[in-house]
Design goal:
The protein is α/β, with parallel strands linked by helices. It has ten helices and 32 strands. A nine-stranded mixed sheet has the order 30-29-32-27-26-25-1-28-31. Helix 8 links the parallel strand 19 and strand 20. It is globular, with a radius of gyration of 27 Å. The two termini are about 30 Å apart. The relative contact order is 0.14. Bound molecules: alpha-L-arabinofuranose. The site of alpha-L-arabinofuranose (AHR) has 11 residues, from loops. The site of alpha-L-arabinofuranose has 11 residues, from loops.
């Protein structure tokens, strides 16, 4: 047992304010966060985007002695954005010998009982000889058809068709695939073949319910969007061109995501904003600033001007009223009310631009944004530079990805930081060692770091863990250590998720005056108060393998009180949750009586405790 440490806290003395917006979310298309994740679409590659190996994962269905071939027809499609289509040429088919296409979904289809799945597709046929299209959801192991629908395609120009798949009293499963088949010879062209699962708050073109519920339970205050590297792209032509992500989905061409797969942009700018609305959080809008991940940049001056204009238009789309050009466009897209906005971020991780062009690029954006929208605060992204921030923004975005021990060594980083420069947004951070999701050592590193965020929250106004989501199916992940894991059917949360949620839901409005002595080097704490509710939120983190006895001297708290204790504990740094063991590590609630102003309490080894003590 380690020696007893002394922790003194005076709840009547405020050391510094805590930012009410301290904890939020950061998001981007990575690890199939949207396509194959949050976005409710179930069909993978619904727009038949071609790769070197065809249009994966689509394949042909050839039941019995059916004969069918497929090809991409670049001469016809339902829109300018989707000007190509899948041509299906069926030369032999009959009832029992059906031909068509099959799609395995994003590593399966997570079917639930008594659920309606809404489907649609665009089709074109020269004549009616091919007969109706049958859409079947089929169990992979048994071949049993779980649910089925039939649609007759009218000969003539491209048309949109809708279908429904309804499940009965089935056992939930993901091991299913989808088939689109015909039972007669003929030729058929298909595009934008969609099947949506039920969405959070029934939003059309919306988000998967279970993942939204996981995020809501974190009590976030903002959503930083759309990236991350997703804002920038690998080359200059891959930038997040937001205007191509709005309006009817048939008018969205999609684009290359920097994480190695095609993005449909079904979850586009308006859907990001509606996601914010549904979680009751504000967007932190990152606008593209002319830098690509391959190290190239757009020259300042006239070359950069179109991107500056795109940013001005984007802000108008988000927050302009309907008398403005882009506010009216947003209304046409289904959302007349402007969205709340306070912060605009210029670029992402521009400290990586070794040419040093960011200062001038930032200045060109900042001048135009300030002139048109003086009400918004601007965030610069050169915060991790070795040299002092030159952009003079309102807020500087700093990113940290560290091992558990390195993260613990960073806990006091901001204690002596200058308060004369910009405020800090820790726009991406995570303790990283677990894969695909953080282990308990990571959660300890995260909790330790958050004690520093809270203590310095007069300076650090916002912080967001990254990345947020990972599809844990084989092939789904590009970046190990992500907060929330999921597959086609279920979600699970990591120990770090619990640490984040516990800290965010016991934030407090101010840091109480405090000091500690005699503690082990891996002991960390935060003491914040909520004066109007007369409660002390005490966060105690013991990352040591030995218990940490404490003698707490509490000023401003007298008499006996019952404190609520929420504990997170595991036996090792490596212990973790997973899709097959989702609850191995979870918060445990208890209560404890604190009598008087001196309180002896032991924080067990490898533990995070969040204690609410009334006063
Ligand atoms: O969070 C993963 C990546 O890390 C982000 O896309 C990028 O901003 C950072 O380098």
């Amino acid at each position: 047992m380690a020696q007893s440490a002394k922790l003194s806290i005076d709840v009547t003395q405020i050391a510094s304010p805590v930012s009410p917006t301290l904890y939020g979310l950061m998001t981007e298309e990575i690890n199939h966060s949207y396509d194959g994740g949050l976005y409710a679409e179930l069909i993978q590659n619904r727009t038949f985007h071609s790769e070197w190996n065809g249009e994966p994962p689509w394949d042909l269905v050839r039941h019995g002695n059916a004969i069918v071939s497929r090809s991409i027809d670049k001469s016809t499609g339902p829109s300018t954005a989707l000007s190509h289509s899948m041509k299906l040429s069926v030369t032999a088919a009959s009832p029992g010998n059906e031909a068509g296409l099959t799609n395995p979904g994003y590593w399966g289809y997570g079917l639930r009982p008594n659920t309606t799945y809404l489907g649609s597709f665009y089709a074109h046929a020269e004549n009616s000889e091919i007969g109706p299209i049958t859409i079947s959801m089929v169990n992979n192991a048994t071949g049993t058809v779980i649910t089925q629908a039939q649609i007759t395609v009218q000969p003539g120009p491209w048309q949109r068709y809708e279908y429904k798949l309804q499940t009965g009293a089935i056992t939930p499963s993901i091991a299913n695939h989808l088939e689109f088949t015909v039972a007669h010879p003929g030729t058929l062209w298909l595009q934008l073949v969609s099947l949506m699962q039920p969405t959070f708050q029934n939003r059309p073109n919306g988000n998967r319910i279970d993942l939204m519920e996981r995020m809501a339970a974190m009590h976030p205050k903002f959503l930083r969007l759309p990236g991350g590297n997703y804002l920038e792209g690998i080359t200059l032509k891959d930038w997040y061109d937001w205007k191509k992500t709005i309006g009817p989905v048939v008018n969205r061409p999609g684009h290359h995501s920097p994480w190695g797969y095609w993005s449909t942009d079904g979850l586009g700018l308006l859907e990001f904003l509606e996601w914010c609305e549904d979680l009751h959080v504000e967007p932190i809008l990152a606008v593209y600033a002319g830098y690509a991940l391959n190290g190239t940049h757009v020259a300042t001056g006239p070359d950069l001007e179109p991107y500056v204009q795109a940013a001005l238009d984007e802000v108008e789309y988000v927050a302009g009223d309907t008398s403005t050009k882009w506010g009216a466009e947003r209304a046409r897209n289904g959302h007349p009310a402007p969205f709340p906005l306070h912060y605009i971020e210029i670029g992402n991780e521009d400290y990586l631009d070794k040419s040093g062009s960011y200062t001038a690029r930032y200045a060109q954006f900042a001048e135009a944004l300030h002139k048109r929208y003086p009400q918004y605060k601007l965030i610069a992204t050169d915060g991790n530079s070795e040299y002092e921030t030159k952009a003079h923004p309102d807020v500087s975005d700093e990113h940290y990805y560290k091992s558990p021990n390195d993260m613990m060594d960073l806990v006091h980083h901001y204690d002596k930081a200058s308060r004369n420069g910009p405020k800090i947004f820790v726009g991406e951070w995570a303790t990283r060692s677990g894969s695909p999701t953080p282990n308990f050592g990571d959660a300890l590193g995260d909790a330790a770091f958050m004690t520093g965020l809270e203590r310095n929250s007069d300076l650090i106004i916002m912080a967001a863990y990254a990345p947020l989501l990972v599809n844990v199916s084989p092939g789904g992940m590009q970046w190990p250590t992500d907060l929330i894991g999921f597959d086609a059917g279920t979600t699970y949360v990591s120990p770090s998720y619990w640490a984040q949620s516990l800290f965010a839901s016991h934030l407090g409005t101010a840091t109480a005056s405090s000091s500690v002595s005699g503690e082990n080097p891996r002991f960390f704490y935060s003491a914040t108060v909520q004066p109007d509710e007369h409660v002390l939120h005490l966060k105690l983190v013991n990352a040591s393998t030995a218990d940490q006895p404490l003698t707490l001297q509490l000023s401003g708290i007298s008499g006996a009180h019952t404190a609520n204790v929420t504990s997170l504990h595991a036996a090792t740094f490596e212990a973790t949750n997973s899709i097959i063991d989702p609850d191995a590590i979870h918060p445990v609630e208890s209560s404890i009586t604190v009598a008087g102003s001196t309180w002896n309490h032991t924080v067990p080894a490898l533990s995070i405790e969040v204690i609410d003590l009334p006063f």
